[in-house]
Amino acid sequence: MQIENFIDGKFTPPIDGNYLPNLNPANGELNSMIPDSSHDDVNSAVNAAKSAFSNWSKLTINERIDWLRQIADGLEQRKADIARLECEDTGKPISLAERVDAERSITNFSFFADHAKSIADLEFRMDDATNYVIRKPVGVVGLITPWNLPLYLLSWKIAPALVMGNTIIAKPSELTPSTANLLCEVLDSIDFPKGVINIVQGLGSTVGQAIVEHPEIRAISFTGGTETGKIVARTAAPMFKKLSLELGGKNATIILDDVDLASAAKGAARAAFTNSGQVCLCGSRILVADKIYHEFVDLLVEEVEAMKVGNPKHRDTDIGSVISIAHKDKIHSYIDLAKSEGGEILTGSEFTILPSNANGAFVAPTLIANLNIDSRCAVEEIFGPVATIHRFTTDEEAIRMANITQYGLAGSIWTGDRARGVAVANQIDSGILWVNTWLHRDLRTPFGGVKNSGVGREGGDWSLNFFSELSNICVKDD
Ligand code: NDP
Q: Are 386 and 277 in contact (CB under 8 A)?
C-alpha cells in the first residue's frame, strides 16, 4: 500500500516523489510506503490552509461542532481499522489498541464537540463601561505528534483546533502514519471542507522543522521528546508563535506502608508496563516503603511474570513489541548499563515468541532493583518496559526521591489513607498526580508537565484557550 499526503482535500503525492518504508515492528514486514515530504509539500499545505481559513473561521461554533460530530461518527464506523492499523504500525497488543487508541481517538472529537458548547461569553462590568472578551481563532496551526499513541494524540490536538476555527497542518510520526491517513479517508468520505485539515507525512527533521519554521503558521502544538522540544522551542520562540510543549517524563509510583499490597502491585505493574512502558505517563520508578518492601516486590514480580509477551494480534497478549529495532537496542543498552552499575534484574530476561515474530522488536517487562535513585536508569527516560525499584523510610524521603529528576509530568501514590496520599501528591513537582489509580482521565482537567516535561496545558478549556486568541473590547457607557 502507498500512503499519500492529504492537502487541500486531495490525496497528493510528495512533490519530490520520494517515499519511506513503514515497517511493522512486531515482524519486520513492510506495512506501507509513505511520503518523504519536503519543505515544498509543507508550503503547499500552508497555502491550502490559508485559503480555507476564511470560510472555516466564519462558520458558527455550532456548525463546527456539527463537523466534529460527523468526524466522530465516521471514525466510529472505522473503529476496528483504527485498532488494527495502530497494532501494525506500533506492535502494541490489539486489545490495547481497541480499548485505548481507537476509543479515545473517537472520544476526542465527541468530547470537544460537547465541551465547546460550554464556553461562556466573558463580560467585565466597570462603573462606567463594559468589557467584552472576544475569542478568535489563531489562524493556521501546526500539530506535531509522536508514535506511541498515534491517532489518540493527533486527534487530541485536531479536535480543539478545529472547533475554535483554526485550519491545520499536521505531521504524525513517520513510524506511525496509517491512522492519520485513515482520518483523511474519513474526511474525504464526509465531504469535509477542503484545506481545513492537511496532513503532511515524513520526517521530523524535514517536515516537522519546516512546520515549526513556517512564518505563516501561528501556533505550534508539539508532543514528543524533551530534546526535540528544545529544538522546537528554539525555532518557534523568536517568531513569537503560540507554543504548547508536551514532553517526556520519568514518573514515580510511590507505595506507602499502609497500602493494600495486592491492588498496589497490580496498579504499579499496569503503570509501568502499559504499551510496553511507551506512555509518557508510565511509572518507571517504583518507590517502596521499607516496611513492606519484600512483600510488595514479591507480589509485583508475580504480576509482571504473569504478563504474556508475544504476537500483538493475539487477544491474550499483554506486551507486544516496542516501536522499532533501534528502540529495542536503546532499551537493552539501559538494561546493560544497569547491570554494570550493580543493578539486580528481578525479572525480565526470558520469553518465547512465535517464529513469525522472530524479527520483531520485543523486550520483556524488566524490573531492576539495587540502583541508586540518581543512577542514569533511574532518572533518564528509557520509554520502554523497564522500571527501577527503590526503597524509602519516610514520606519526606519518598517525596525527595520523586522530585530528583529533571522531569515533572506525572506520578501515582498508593496508600490506605487518601488524605496522606493527597498530602504527598501536593509536594511532588508534577502536572498530573493520581492517588490509588493511574491514567484515570477526565478530559476536562488540565494535562501537562512542569520542569523539562513541558510548557502549557492541554485538556478542556486549556486546549480551547490555546487554540484561540482573546481580545478585550471595552465600551464606555453613554
Ligand atoms: P520525538 O521527539 O522524537 O518526535 C516527536 C515528533 O516530533 C515526531 O513527529 C517527530 O518526527 C517530530 N520531530 C522530530 N524532529 C523534529 C524537529 N526538528 N522539528 C519538528 N518536529 C520534529 O518523540 P518520539 O516520537 O520518539 O516520542 C516519544 C517521546 O514523546 C517521549 O519522550 C515521550 O515521553 C513523549 N511523549 C510525551 C507526551 C506528553 O503528553 N507529555 C505524550 C506522549 C509522548 P519523526 O518521528 O519523523 O522524527
A: yes
